Amino acid sequence: MIHFVNVDKVYPDGTKAVKNFSLDIEEGKLVTLIGPSGCGKSTTMKMINRLTEPTSGVLYINDRNIEEYNIHELRWNIGYVLQEIALFPHMTVEENIAVVPEMKKWKKKYIEKRINELMEMVGLDPKTYRKRLPQELSGGEQQRVGVIRALAADPDIILMDEPFSALDPIARERLQHDIQTLQKEIRKTIVFVTHDMDEALALGDKICLMKDGRIVQVGTPQQLMLHPENQFVKDFIGARQSPWETAVDIILSRSSRHIISQQQYKNGMFPKHGLYFIKDKEHRWVGAVQDGIRTKIAPLENYLPLHEAVERMEEGKYSALPVVKNGILIGVLSYKDVVTYLKSTDKRGDAL
To answer: Distance between CA atoms of 67 and 74, rounded to whole angstroms?
Structure first.
């Protein structure tokens, strides 16, 4: 989808903001760019919609050099959400959301439908909020409108530049959850810049950690936390290695023996004793079967901290629970996994 190949950015004063940057961002994935202030993450992101031009190297979108795109065509297909919410103050919520669809000459009835659809997605009742002006909204509500305005014309790519950093912790956590929920439905390619490692770990399918304009490590949240490549990565992740702050998917059972396919379930080709979790052909979570009988189990979302996952297990009657990420069944978390993980981290000295 998006490919950086040996990209450099040098400003006229000689500052080397980005150095030999190569990264593949897959379609439908959320990739977080993270690092200390001045590491080049925002500059890197701005090269995707050509707000900043690379000094050398090549950037491709859908295997096409971005310089070959008409710049308006390119930007119309890229949603952009800033830390400074930047809603038009004299426009109502619905007018703000409709800006790009109107520029693209969408029919009015489709714009109306899209506005309602998006507002409902982020918990803003259209009847209540459509006619309000930005100053009549809270900071969190304004940022929600900013997010759905970026989605309004159904772009393939969304760029988010520290969009929640100015919000209070409660609003920030709610919006992080909104993005996770939205991404399950829309499956857009999202590049998300943040300086907050907790946010990067919670949101990212892949994390790109930068320092001084260069990539230090790229990988899944699990890979960075379990296999940091150097001391800088370890220091940047820091105390988040505590199991009480860790996303549950870093300790998933690697055994697939408790996961069965939908076809196996339909054909009765699984043991009739024990707990099994069902996935379809696309590996989406389907349900669970206990001792041969379908049973209702709410799966764990992969971004849950471990302590919340344990609380969920204690509330129910099951010693293992399925873990999903964007609706995909990615593994099983059991009490045994938790105990094994706690013992291993305690021996290393980075747990309780």
So the answer is: 9
121-130, 272-281, 303-312, range with the lowest pLDDT: 303-312
Between CA 90 and CA 195 the distance in angstroms is 32
Using alpha carbons, list the distances in angstroms from residue 303 to 34, 225, 307. Answer: 18, 14, 12
Task: Work out the number of other CB atoms within 10 angstroms of the CB of residue 84.
Answer: 10
Prediction pTM value: 0.74
The two three-digit tokens of residue 208, written as one number: 């790109």
Of 290, 193, 265, 199, the C-alpha closest to 237 is 199
DSSP code string of 52-63? S--SEEEEEETT
Please write the tens of the pLDDT for every residue from 17-58: 999 999 999 999 999 999 999 999 999 999 999 999 999 999
Task: Specify whether the CB–CB gap between 263 and 283 falls below 8 A.
Answer: no
Phi-psi region of 38 (alpha: psi -120 to 50; beta: other; left: phi over 0): left
Give all strands (DSSP E) within the chain, no chain letters.
2-10, 16-25, 30-34, 56-61, 64-65, 78-82, 157-161, 189-194, 206-211, 214-219, 259-261, 275-279, 285-290, 293-295, 300-301, 320-325, 328-334
Q: Provide the 3-class DSSP secondary structure of residue 51.
A: coil
What is the H or E stretch that residue 174 is in? helix 169-186
The DSSP output letter for 14 is S
CB-based contacts of 127: which residues, under 8 Å, 6+ apart? none
CA atoms of 278 and 120, how far apart (whole Å)? 30
Taking the CA of residue 289 as centre, how many other CA atoms within 13 Å lie in the half-sphere pointing to its CB?
Answer: 21
